[in-house]
Amino acid sequence: VRRLASSGLARDYEVVVGRGTLADLGAEARRVAGGTAAVVCCDENVAPLYLEAVGESLAAAAYQVSHLVIPAGERQKSLSRAEEMYGVLYDRGVRRTDLMVALGGGVVGDLAGFVAATYQRGVRLVQVPTTLLAQVDAGIGGKVAVDFRAGKNYVGTFYQPRLVLADLDVLATLPAAELRGGAAEVAKYGLLAGGELWELAERLAAGGLTAAGVSEDLVAGCAAYKLAVVAADEREETGARAVLNLGHTIGHAVEAATAFARYSHGEAVALGLHATLRLSRELCGLEEAQEQSGHDLLDVLALPRRLDGVRPEQVCALTARDKKADAQGVAHVLLDAVGEPRPGVRVPAALELEVVTWLTER
Amino acid sequence: VRRLASSGLARDYEVVVGRGTLADLGAEARRVAGGTAAVVCCDENVAPLYLEAVGESLAAAAYQVSHLVIPAGERQKSLSRAEEMYGVLYDRGVRRTDLMVALGGGVVGDLAGFVAATYQRGVRLVQVPTTLLAQVDAGIGGKVAVDFRAGKNYVGTFYQPRLVLADLDVLATLPAAELRGGAAEVAKYGLLAGGELWELAERLAAGGLTAAGVSEDLVAGCAAYKLAVVAADEREETGARAVLNLGHTIGHAVEAATAFARYSHGEAVALGLHATLRLSRELCGLEEAQEQSGHDLLDVLALPRRLDGVRPEQVCALTARDKKADAQGVAHVLLDAVGEPRPGVRVPAALELEVVTWLTER
User: Fold this and answer.
1) Got the DSSP string for B257-324?
2) Which of A36, A119, A125, A155 to mutate to test the interface with B (most CBs of B within 10 A)?
3) Best residue in A120, A144, A149, A233 to probe B by mutation, most B CBs within 10 Å?
4) Annotation says A153 is catalytic
5) Could you report the average pLDDT of every consecutive run of 10 residues in chain A (362 residues)?
6) Among the four residues A121, A142, A171, B165, which has the most C-beta atoms within 10 Å?
């Protein structure tokens, strides 16, 4: 078991990464978060797999446990679903000092996190990420949100959990496509951090991407990288946090341009990373061999390599609507080298279109 | 003009209090907040009075100004109104680096503040409080929220503005009842701070409570008291911020028990303060003469002195639903003496009922 502690946040917290740790959830939550009642939120896919075990662990730690099961899918990240969840908390008399346990992937973490952040101005939140994507990325860092119209995560806030508990054993029940989606974020951290994390990402890919192949070192390494970046810029104000958007500016635009239907988040990020590698060679002097090793890693992970089903112009029109855009447009995060991200790069519109067009023609 | 600066917050900001300051809004906002577009949110009562002047001031400081006018009243503090406002910001392509200007009383400040806090995880917020209540209390401190069912401010967050600008001249157009409601919060700050602020509150009452009688010293004094408390406990976690709830625990329950219809917030706070003064003598040894001077101040301000139209049991049932309640119930803020608040007092249920019953029979 690896224990990471954030530092430098308004309120610091622990990230626990291990195998079989789900059984310790109640004791860990009792230790760091306290509270009387615990509402466990998960989707219909996760409920039959882990809800009982989680409930037992929490009950053994003297929590009054109740459940809040929602349908699966990104469409649940809506204001209307959040409103329904507020009603559940209201009816159950949940208090600020109680716990919301977000048991699931990015959707449940973002949605239950947003509800926890805003109900009574904040009930205590425990993130129990059950997908690789959420364990290495979404479950950490305090971003919570719902979608609004075509705007992904357009209504949200920053709200740090009291505890993040990642059990790698639960990855065994993940569909292969979900595991691949998470691997796209792993590739992102490999490209950002370089060094050991890049090697761990390549090893994961070379091993054929299995749940058993996901190591504590890898997940804890990604989480530690993210915690350090978030501590430097908790509310995305100084620009330091922007590096986490590697591949995401174009990735988000791809998701929006395809109505959040054709590509999963991880698949869209993989496409965004391909484009980012290209742009990095054009604008930041990324070596061709490093660019190629990035493309290769994503290919070995069996992530999509060509953008289909959308015109390049549609994608480029949406990068300008990025939440991080200002009056000068959006700034991309590119790479000077693997392990050396460069945030704040203004990409000429013509070049952005050229690279997205290349992405549709590979 | 008085300029106060917060200190100790995650991001500090300035509070400007003066007469005729509305004309300086654009320049002040440009100096501290920057941004390209400014969306001015106000209600239908305020729009014909001040929207043009505010728009001109902002336009003169090179903001692209647009308006968002909503109906007046507490009922606007709803999730559905917030959703409609998100749609307006979306349609106008508002960015995080743009400004939301909340021009109005507590309702507009809370609602526009909540929308600003959550749209794209936060656009820049400028509070321009136009009621006495908002100038001394609601516009300062970063609490933003909408109501949910009978739960006042049950969905919200903490989000500090970039600037608070209070122009005392605008109080001249306030209905007398609104001025009285604000005076209840002034009385709260007088009771909390004692000393000069208590004397200023008594002077305001003795002068017959006119807009012209509201001094910069008084408003700046209340604002400074609140800023200092908020700095010690920005997110209401340590308990220090609880003193600001003097009179509000019962006041909020009165509002909820009467469906937010019979009493304004300030009137309900006045009733809550009467009960708090009684409880303080019973439980904290508040001197009878000080208790009486508190009741007298509220009476001179022509605030309600008797609770009508609701059974005491209904009010007491709702204090337990206070957002600050934990498993042991809610803790009241009482007074050891004027100027010496004591937070965290557990009031026996029988005594609470006795005092609320007294409030209905005075």
Assistant:
1) HTTTTSS-HHHHHHHHHHHHHHHHHHHH---HHHHHHHHHHHHHTT---S--SS-HHHHHHHHTT-TT
2) A155
3) A120
4) no
5) 91 95 98 96 98 98 98 95 98 96 97 98 98 96 94 94 98 96 97 97 96 97 96 89 95 91 94 98 98 97 96 93 76 96 94 97 93
6) B165
